Amino acid sequence: MRCRTLLVVNGGRQPDRDSEGDAPLERAALRVNRSLAIPLDELEWRFTTSGGPGGQHANRSSTRAEVRFDVERSAALGPRQRARLIERLGPTVRAASGAERSQARNRDLALRRLADRLASALHVERTRLPTRPTSAARARRLDDKRRQSTRKQERSARRDDTD
């Protein structure tokens, strides 16, 4: 399942101003699905050096990004969402990315992976409603049964004749 990752700042409205009115207060969130947006301050980040080729840059730069989300302590989740995530993913959810050379791109990839994991865990499969066979399907089935029955009767009649 592929979900769109969207960073929403202050619900899409203009940023609020602080008490003096000069600096905007931004409350950014990671949009997982229609019913869930996780505030970015609930996410914990860790940056380490990424392995693999790249020479001195790879050995010295902390470009690998790992994001951690604590499901049990989150205020953004409802009780059903929390229970479903704990059941499917556990009390903490982690996502990491070290594929890119840039820390900013790895951050975006890690956020996208986290949102995808959360969205797929929250997805509820619709229950199948049993349908009744149509009258044409019933007629086809009975016709096939009759045809098969006569075919087998003809075979047994031939065997009796040869004895």
List keywords for this structure.
163 residues; alpha+beta; Double Stranded RNA Binding Domain; three-stranded antiparallel sheet; 4 helices; disordered N terminus
Task: Give the secondary structure arrangement, pairings included.
Blueprint: E1 6-9, E2 16-17, E3 24-25, E4 28-33, E5 36-39, E6 43-48, H1 56-60, E7 64-70, H2 79-89, E8 92-97, H3 103-122, H4 135-162
Antiparallel strand pairs: 1-4, 2-3, 4-5, 6-7, 7-8
Structure described in brief:
By secondary structure, this protein is of the alpha+beta class. Helix content is 39%, strand content 23%.
CATH top-level class: Alpha Beta
Low-confidence stretches: 1-6, 8-19, 22-26
**Annotation field: number of helices:** 4
Q: Helicity, in percent?
A: 25-40%
What CATH architecture label applies?
2-Layer Sandwich
Mean pLDDT across all amino acids: 82
User: How would you sum up the global shape?
Assistant: elongated
Give the percentage of residues in beta strands.
15-25%
Report the CATH topology name: Double Stranded RNA Binding Domain
Major sheet details: 3 strands, antiparallel
Describe the structure.
It contains four helices and eight strands. It starts with 5 loop residues before the first strand and ends with a helix. 14% of the residues are buried. The strands form three sheets. The protein has a three-stranded antiparallel β-sheet, with helices on one face. A three-stranded antiparallel β-sheet has the order 6-7-8. Strands 2-3 form a two-stranded antiparallel sheet. The protein has one domain: Double Stranded RNA Binding Domain, CATH 3.30.160.20. Strand 4 and strand 5 form a beta hairpin. It has helices at 56-60, 79-89, 103-122, 135-162; strands spanning 6-9, 16-17, 24-25, 28-33, 36-39, 43-48, 64-70, 92-97. It has 163 residues and is an alpha+beta fold.
